[in-house]
Amino acid sequence: MASVAPISDLTSAAAAGAGRAGPRRRRRPRRRRRPGAALTAGTVLVSSLILAAVLVPVLPLADPDAGSLSERLLPPGSLGHPLGTDGQGRDLLSRLLWGVQPSLAAGLVPVLVAGTAGTFLGIVAGLGARWLENVVMRSLDVLFAFPAVLLAISIAASLGAGLTSLVIALSVILVPAVARVVVTEVARLRELDFTQAARAGGARTATIALRHVLPNVLPVLTVYCSALVGLSIVLGSGLSFLGLGVAPPRAEWGAMLDDLRQHIFTAPLLTLIPGAAIFLASVAFNLLGEGLRDHFDVRSRYTL
Fold first, then answer.
1. What is the pTM of this model?
2. Is the dihedral of CA 78, 82, 86, 90 positive or negative?
3. What share of the chain is helix, strand, coil (3-state, %, to 5)?
């Protein structure tokens, strides 16, 4: 009768055979991805705009409001006027740089106001009682029922031309969009385990909002508001183009487009200059928003 090997010997042999089958494949360590091109480009462009707005009072520029009829509609590259002059002989480079301040104000201030108000309303609606959520969201839906551009025109026209009226009009139309984004994110967060554990532990709603919900909403809100700044700059320039924004003779990109509109056939290159500035500012903040989205997305921070 043949003898049977002990189970321990069979186990040892199997382990040895598995060891001879070949070395186990190691996973490469994860490495942190470098900042993307969109974030770098957006940061550089936005920083340049902010730097221009801060330094323009001390730069050796011509008077943006002083014109000369003998130097009307000079083309770009003219002596003493690198970007040419407008229909009143005013230096376009000086007016373009001085126009950064009101254009950035029309982009940043409404988004800051709308971001603050929309975040408050969104958290209140998302964490409050069902009836409170219905009251807040149905009230914001009333604003959503009107086209944003027409509503901004109506508010700006009723308040009168000026930068303050422009900021108020843009702030009003941006609040519902921000609040809806925040409500959607809060509705997702309130069902997660850490929020449920805090509520089960007896934490108050205000504590949950400040310590658990708001820190997780801020990345999404930052990305969304970065893109809204570009939209706000375009809308603000459009209102100024219609005469409802910054009042002349103050330099502003939309108002500059309105001044050069009548010369579009005689001096088409001059009309492209303020339009290109609006386009680049909008692209800068959109690139910044795209870069921040990739940066805050945990799944895209690492590559295998």
1. 0.82
2. negative
3. 70, 5, 25
Is the omega angle on the peptide bond into residue 82 within 30 degrees of 0, that is, cis? no
Stretch (H or E) spanning 302: strand 302-303
Antiparallel, parallel or unpaired: β 302-303 and 31-32: antiparallel
Q: Which residues pair with 85 in a beta bridge?
A: 91
User: Token digits for 238?
Assistant: 């459009």
- Convert the pLDDT of each residue in 114-154 to its tens digit: 999 999 999 998 888 888 888 988 888 888 888 889 999 99
20 three-class SS: helix
Placement of tokens 């010997």 in the chain: 9
| φ and ψ of 91, to 5 deg | -70, 125
**Residue 154 structure tokens:** 């109506």
Alpha-carbon distances, residue 120 vs 136, 176, 258 (angstroms): 11, 11, 38
Residue of 252, 98, 125 whose CA lies nearest to 244 = 252
Q: Report CA torsion sign: 294, 297, 301, 302.
A: negative
CA distances in angstroms from 46 to 39, 92, 190, 232, 272, listed in the order given: 10, 21, 35, 15, 21
Q: How far is CA 99 from the centre of its chain?
A: 20
* Apex 90 CA angle, 87 and 95, nearest 5: 115
What average pLDDT score do residues 16-21 get?
A: 46
DSSP 221-271: HHHHHHHHHHHHHHHHHHHHHTTSSSPTTS--HHHHHHHHGGGTTT-HHHH
Q: What's the CA gap between 216 and 290, in Å, rounded?
A: 18
Quickly list DSSP for 147-165. -HHHHHHHHHHHH-SSHHH
